Amino acid sequence: MQNPVSDPAKSTLTPEKLARFIDHTLLKPEATETEIQATCAEARHLNCATVCVNSKFIPLASRLLADSGTLPIAVVGFPLGACATEAKVFETEWAVRHGAREIDMVIALGDLLAGRDANVEKDIRAVVRAAGPGVPVKVILETCLLNDEQKRRACRLSVAAGAAFVKTSTGFSKGGATADDIRLMRETVGPDIGVKASGGIRTREQALAMIEAGASRIGASASAAILEGTPAAGNY
Questions:
Q1: pLDDT tens-digit series, residues 81-104
Q2: For residue 23, what are the β-bridge partners?
Q3: Which domains, from first to last, does the chain contain?
Q4: Of 13, 81, 104, 181, which shows the fewest CB atoms inside 10 Å?
């Protein structure tokens, strides 16, 4: 895992450095091509780490972000995680083939809650294999629906299956990222696995609190608000 700042809790992050933590995000179901184009243009202007979109828009995002420092990434099994593993595998392979450079998959939440850990790990491992070498996979836990034991177990299963990151939230459930969850996830996965905070982060202060708690990536639609102090919009 690469972190743009070796010790963010003790560093003064300039907007330029903070931008390299951000996955600029547009995942609402009603998003149009015009909005995706605007999101990619904004991410390029801000020099965000990535743009995160639904897989349908990966071919467009890949073209728009070519020759930039911002990577296109796709969500898989989003936002429920309740589809068949084979469907997640197909979506992953399709997204990577069309330019996705990272994959954010939703965990098999029902299996996790039922204690079917082998199924959870198998589901994640299948997506990691489908993504292939050089394409990091983040596992979205939907932490607002889990207790602390379940969060730790989900983190351990993600690491065992080869995921590069664990991630808090889809932004489409009843809660988003909290600093307490980021601390718990960081403590569980250790220093070498990424931790992504997403859901409800709209200000620089919120982003910095997540980084200080251990986040190495921030998922946000309000990237301009975080980096430039403009009014925030969106739920993610």
A1: 999 999 999 999 999 999 999 999
A2: 50, 219
A3: 8-228 (3.20.20.70)
A4: 13
Question: What are 132-145's pLDDT values in tens digits?
Answer: 999 999 999 999 99
In the numeric block, the tokens 């003790």 are attached to 10
The catalytic residue positions are: 104, 167, 196
Q: Rounded distance, CA 184 to CA 186, Å?
A: 6
- pLDDT at site 12: 78
Q: How far apart are CA 163 and CA 233, in angstroms?
A: 30
Is 233's pLDDT higher than 80?
no
pLDDT of 64 reads 98
Q: Which pLDDT score, from 0 to 100, does residue 229 have? A: 75
Instruction: Retrieve residue 123's tokens.
Output: 């589901």
pTM: 0.93
Around Cβ 69, how many Cβ atoms within 10 Å?
13
